[in-house]
Specification:
490 residues; Aldehyde Dehydrogenase, Chain A, domain 1; 22% strand; binds nicotinamide-adenine-dinucleotide
């Protein structure tokens, strides 16, 4: 039975100086509830004067905020954590509304955002420098880590809440201010979360939210008030942002697209492997930069893996994510459904064998929704586009490798290097896999190789531009602080 949902967010405001502020522009992008295929709001494109005034306020705020002791700065994170937790369910429901993921996936996403707040709370330890007494006769030397200035985060549609939280808590705990430009496709979550910032004790201007799309990004990239950019999105835009920011002598970290390979060895626990693969390939409707996309088998287990995997994929229940029984939600937009369907056409034209065709399934209760059921291709070869290009939807390509070495060569031939996984019960296979694959995140009997917030989020080749990776760990501390070396003689 259809769930009716008339929620409408109107034209989304920006969040500047701890207030929701109307945007004056007439240019705006529709925000959909993708399960219903209905517009639920609009994201405006922020005009230059409003971006400039937001950045000026962020710069003014940072001058004061960087002088607040780090022991005090982290206290706002404790309050932010508590406030996020208190509205976890509401934020999760909203994520399902604006993105389409199931409620269980949405609850998980809010949990991941909270985890980043927890990880950033150890900023006091992270900011500790190094020193030597008597490095030379009568000379001491020490390194301090100091805040940098104003940062901008430009984030994608697929994790509207988690990805901004890869940056906000670290940037502010380390003494910076940050301006977040969420995806124009999913801007509602950050709008709702902004209601917590002042309550958590974050001073005016330290965290701001600006709406917009590529025009706003260009204005942010051109501003001299921004010291660094954290970007997450597709490879073409990541490359563009990285080039343009670097040319302006700014620091930049840019997570990008992916094509992830998952190898099932004949000695793997089949039950565990297939459950994990289903969640990896079709969770979040395949719109995850860590989603499995190419499933590699060996001749000994190929037929069985394909049969069990395709059967399980065929049974997934599609529906509105707010309904308990839904196991897979819609894609983000109608155009994206068309794009993913075009890859199914491409796979057929390339000669792969379509053993499960997601185009034939309907979600009768939601005829206007942007649904596309899982598809599985067998007999895929390394030269096919469906084996090489990011599809970002529920399409699995199965390649039967000749042996372990052949599987590793296939994985390493990809232009992308976000994640890869091996399913095996052999320690030596797992160890060799870890040593040999050229991906930044590696799973062993784990379908979605997502690092917990305390670890950096890997990513290599065309899946990452820059040097210092997002999420917890040293990289982020280096990204959001500057070193100051003091040489003293007394
Ligand atoms: P996208 O590149 O279209 O958009 C990302 C951000 O860039 C948005 O805020 C958008 O407004 C802005 N943008 C879009 N086009 C622009 C342009 N021409 N100039 C300047 N800014 C522009 O990405 P998306 O569709 O929102 O997200 C999906 C992509 O993100 C996938 O490729 C996925 O693999 C990738 N992703 C990567 C990671 C990672 O950590 N590596 C994580 C999540 C998503």
């Amino acid at each position: 039975m259809e769930t009716s949902d008339d929620t409408h967010f109107g034209i989304l405001p920006n969040f500047i100086e701890n207030r929701k502020v109307e945007v004056s522009s007439e240019m705006r992008y529709p925000v959909f509830n993708p399960a219903l295929g209905k517009v639920i709001g609009y994201a405006p494109e922020t005009p230059k004067e409003e971006i400039d005034s937001c950045l000026e306020s962020a710069a003014r705020a940072q001058e004061k905020w960087c002088r607040v002791p780090v022991t005090e700065r982290i206290k706002v994170l404790f309050d932010l954590r508590r406030l996020l937790e208190s509205r976890r369910d509401e934020f999760a429901v909203n994520l399902t509304r604006e993105h389409g993921k199931t409620l269980a996936e949405a609850v998980g996403e809010v949990g991941r955002a909270i985890e980043n707040v927890e990880a950033a709370a150890s900023a006091v330890y992270h900011m500790m420098g190094k020193n030597n007494l008597e490095i030379s006769a009568g000379i001491d030397e020490e390194v301090y880590r100091v805040p940098v200035g104003v940062f901008a985060a430009i984030t994608p549609f697929n994790f509207p809440l988690m990805v901004p939280f890869w940056f906000i808590p670290y940037a502010i705990a380390l003494g910076n201010s940050i301006v977040v430009k969420p995806s124009e496709k999913t801007p509602v979550s950050m709008n709702l979360v902004s209601e917590l910032f002042e309550k958590a004790g974050i001073p005016k201007g330290v965290v701001s939210i600006l709406n917009g799309a590529s025009r706003s990004v260009d204005l942010l990239l051109d501003s001299n008030l921004v010291s660094g950019y954290s970007f997450v999105g597709s490879t073409s835009v990541a490359e563009y942002v990285h080039k343009r920011a670097s040319a302006g002598h700014k620091r930049v970290q840019a997570g990008a697209s992916a094509k992830n390979f998952e190898l099932v060895m004949p000695d793997a626990d089949m039950g565990l492997a297939v459950r994990s693969l289903i969640s990896s390939f079709f969770g979040n409707a395949g719109e995850r930069c860590l989603a499995g996309s190419v499933l590699i088998t060996l001749p000994e287990n190929h037929d069985k893996v394909v049969r069990v995997f395709a059967d399980a994929a065929a049974k997934l229940k599609l529906g509105y994510g707010l309904e308990k029984e839904s196991e897979m939600g819609p894609l983000i937009r109608k155009e994206h459904v068309e794009r993913v369907r075009s890859y199914i056409d491409i796979g057929e034209a390339e000669g792969a064998k379509l053993v499960l065709d997601g185009r034939t399934k309907r979600v009768n209760d939601y005829p206007e929704g942007f649904f596309l059921a899982p598809s599985v291709f067998d007999e895929v070869t390394p030269d096919m586009r469906i084996c090489k290009e990011e599809i970002f939807g529920p399409v699995a390509s199965v390649v039967c490798a000749a042996d372990f070495g052949d599987a590793i060569r296939l994985i390493n031939s990809s232009r992308f290097g976000n994640a890869s996984t091996i399913f095996t019960s052999s320690g030596i296979n797992a160890r060799n896999f870890i040593k040999m694959v050229e991906t930044g995140n590696v799973g062993v009997n784990v379908g979605v190789a997502a690092p917990i917030a305390f670890y950096p989020f890997g990513g290599r080749k065309d899946s990452f531009y820059g040097d210092l990776h997002p999420q917890g760990g040293e990289d982020h501390v280096y990204f959001f602080t500057e070193r100051k070396v003091v040489i003293s003689r007394w």
